Amino acid sequence: MTSLHILRLDDNAINGSIPEEIGSLSSLKELDLSKNSLTGPIPASIWNMSNLSLVYLFKNELTGTLHLQFNNLTGPIPASIGNLGNLTILAIFENNFYGSISPTLINLTKHTLLDVQQNQLSGPIPPEIGKLKLLFKLGLFVNNLNGSIPGEFKNLTTLQNLGVSSNILSCYIPQDICTGGLLVNFTAHENYFIGSIPKSFRNCATSYRVRLDKNQSSGNISEDLGIYPHLNYIDLSYNNFYGEFYQKWGQCQRLQSLKISNNRISGGIPS
To answer: Which SUPFAM superfamilies match (predicted)?
Structure first.
C-alpha cells in the first residue's frame, strides 16, 4: 500500500510485534499504534520512512531502543517518553531539541544508554537521572545545561561513560562521581567547574580517557591522582592545578597523551 498516508490502529487489542514490512509504506505520514498490546522491539525500518512526521506508540509493551540521532528534529523532548517503561536505549543526539530535560525520564528504569548530546537543551541536569541504576552511558555534552552535576549521580554505580563537556556547568564535580569504580570515559571540559579532582577518581582504575581541561579546577595534582593501568588520554590543561609533577605517571604504561599545560605545576620531570 505504497500510497497510504495515514494508518491509525490505536485503542484496540492488537497483539504481537510490529512487522518489519511496515517500512514499505513509503508515503506514510502518520502512524498511530498506541493503546494496544504490542510487544517486541520497534522495527528499524520505521526510522527509514522519510515522509513520516507523527508516530504514536505509547501504552504498549514494546521493548528495545529508540534511535533518532542525526536528524533535524526540533522542539522540547516530549515528557511522554517517560511512558516507554521498557525502553533501554534513547539516542537523540545531533538534533535541534531545546528546553529542559524532563524528570519523567526517571520512569525509564530499564535504561542503559541515554544520549542527548549536541542539541540545544538548557536548564539543570535533573537529579532524577541518578535513579537510573542500570545506566552505563550518559551523553549530555554540547548543550546549554547549567547548574551542577547532581550529587545523586553517586548512585550510578554501573556508569562507564559520562560526557558533560561544553555546557555552562559550574560548582564542584561530586567527590563520589566514580563510586562504582567502572568509569572508563569521563569528559567534563569547557565548563566552569571549580575545586579539586574528585576523590573517588583515585580508585577508578578502569579510566581510559579523561578530560577536565578548560575549567577553573584547582588542587594539588601530586595528591589527587591514582594509578591507571588502562589510561590512554588525560587532559587537565587550562586550570589552576598546582604541586609537583605526578611521580606515578610512569606506571600508566598505556598513556599516549598527557596534557597539563597552563597550570601551576612546579618541580622537575621524573625520570
So the answer is: RNI-like (SSF52047)
Residue 207 in grid coordinates? 579510566
Q: Which pLDDT tens digit goes with each residue over 140-188?
A: 999 999 999 999 999 999 999 999 999 999 999 999 999 888 999 999 9
- Nearest residue to 158 via CA among 114, 112, 108: 112
- Give strand pairing partners of 16: 38
Kindly write down the DSSP assignment for every residue of 148-162, as one continuous string: ---GGGGG-TT--EE
What would the pLDDT profile of 74-87 be if each residue is shown by its tens digit?
889 888 777 777 77
- The C-alpha atoms of residue 139 and residue 137 are separated, in whole angstroms, by 7
- Taking the C-alpha atoms of residue 121 and residue 71, their distance in angstroms, rounded to an integer, is 16
Cell of residue 82, nine digits: 517517560
- State the burial class of residue 6 (Cβ atoms within 10 Å of its Cβ: 0-12, 13-18, 19+): exposed
H or E, element range at 242: strand 240-244
pLDDT above 90: percentage of residues in the chain: 61
| CB count in 10 Å sphere of residue 150 | 16
Q: How far apart are CA 233 and CA 132, in angstroms?
A: 28
